[in-house]
Amino acid sequence: MNVGMLGELFATISERGRRLIERRGEIGRRTRTPEAVIALAEDLLSHRGEASGTARASEILQAYAHFSAEERIVFFDALAGRFGVDPVRLKRAIDAYAAAPSEETAQELHLEGEPRRQELFRRLNLAPGGTQSLVDMRTHLLSTLKARPALEVVDRDLVHLFTSWFNRGFLVVKRIDWTTPAHILEKIIAYEAVHAIRDWDDLRRRLQPADRRCFAFFHPALADEPLIFVEVALTRDIPDAIGPLLAAERPPLAAREARTAVFYSISNCQTGLKGISFGHFLIKQVAEELKKDLPDLEIFVTLSPVPGFARWLKTERGDGAAWLGPEDAAALDALAADGMTADEDLRRAASPALMRAAARYFLEAKTAGGRPVDPVARFHLGNGARLERIDLFGDVSPKGLAESHGVMVNYLYDLERIEKNHEAYAETGFVAAAPAVRKALKKD
Questions:
Q1: Is 195 known to be catalytic?
Q2: Which three-class secondary structure state does DSSP give residue 330?
Q3: Which of 57, 115, 334, 430 could be a cystine partner for 424, CB 3.0 to 4.6 Å?
């Protein structure tokens, strides 16, 4: 059964359930207030009928879609406070297991230890469009967590369920090209988060030439919504700057002449799936697909931005970082005073200091949890890549200069070492890096 037929089946069930409930007089008007929706959620958990349950789930999600930000807070507070674990039943299960440990009592303890909202989310997911509605719901929830940390319990439950629902086994990788339906191409333009796509001509330049590829992951329940996509340039060598790759008038390379696949932009599309990792699977599968189509490809590498470097370096300089030394500090100060724009002499003079600073940023600057402070580094290193090369002034766009003083970096995906690098990073936080990067820490 294909996705379209399955959607139509759920819609039919929902509509029949709605008519059944209305005949019983249980829904006299569209539910809109948070209090009424909360009551309907309790009702949904107390009934087992498939048809009526699907109708109730649809009613809840339709009402939620019209909530204001304040009404969402009321609903989220109820999820956290009223739809958690039943303490009485949990205590009973704990006592039963303590008295007679067995697989049966252990399973009962597991079931009673699950918050009621998890089952509520599962039932809401049965409504037509339920998966997308829950992803959107988490998007709203994430925007409230800083002000209301007590809602993190709700977020953890959604992450737990999404991790299962968006398991790699359910995802499909598809190539995006100029023949892809326009409504999906529009979303690629909208979701591009690294190097903005200016217009349709710009998109065509990224999709149509023989030396360009784009791949995206899709989920059957969100058939027209890409989850993550990667843009690829086929080149002879590892590039050290983004400008030539995106230039409007660049001469295309025949695909058979390429030896390097460059992942130059990776964009997550669904804010509500933040923290659900697809990148590892996508990069490995794209590399395999490219290798299958172009067996002469030898190198798989990124050309990645460094979004937090300028902010970090400003803090270090402001704190009078002794590791810079007076000459390095003076060179960086002069470069910063110039606005990090076009003076080649200043760039040349500051390059050694900038390289040492970048190497320190990647290899020694850590979060409280002992991981690299750079989010892009955490993504690629966690996916098994090696920090291969630091590219000074690789992105001299206004955004690149403001965020990273123009610094970009190449992460190498050695298909035979991905798993080893991933395990080392996951277990100890070890940063796999090329010798040249480590050498850059030292002052000649």
A1: no
A2: helix
A3: 430
